[in-house]
Structures are given as C-alpha cells and as structure tokens.
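Supplementary Methods, section 5.1.

A reviewer requested that the exact input to the structure prediction be made available. We therefore reproduce it here, unchanged from the version used in the analyses.
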Amino acid sequence: MSAVFMPVTVFLIGIAVPAGWVDQEELLDAVRHPLGRVYLFLLVSLSLFHGAHRIRYALVDLGFPALGRRQWLFYGLAVVGTLVCGWLLVRL
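The structure derived from this sequence is encoded token-by-token as follows.
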C-alpha cells in the first residue's frame, strides 16, 4: 500500500504545494480531517515496517546473520516510529 500511495503524497507535498497548484491551507485541512490522519498514520507505519523487514533481510543476505536475528531491534524501531507518528498526528 505504501508503494501505491507514497508517490501521490510526495507529489502533493513536494511538487503541487510549492508550485501553487494546491493551497497549503487546503492540504492542512485535509490532514487535520480524521481520515487524513488515518491515511498518514497507515502510510508511515506501513513504510516503517516494510523498511525494517527489508533492512533485516538485506543484512542476512550480505552475510551478517547475527544482526538479522536481532529482529526485535528492527521491528522495535518501527513500533517506536509508529507510536511517535500517532502521537504527532493526535497533537496536530
């Protein structure tokens, strides 16, 4: 899901807003909407867990199986990042 929705998000935030195609206040209103917050939360959390999984198995493939077995480290950082994201979105 993050591979499908990340390019749209990057386009909106990185290209459409600076070019003036989308008003910054309209985008902020969309983010403040409960569905916008759920969208961002899912986008960030899925990306973090996907990255943790890919890094873990890349280390195993590169010949570092001891690091790859420390799955608690990679997925734990993804959980911490997800919690921080949720906290920031609640405060928004």
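The chain has one domain: 2-91. These observations are discussed further in the main text.
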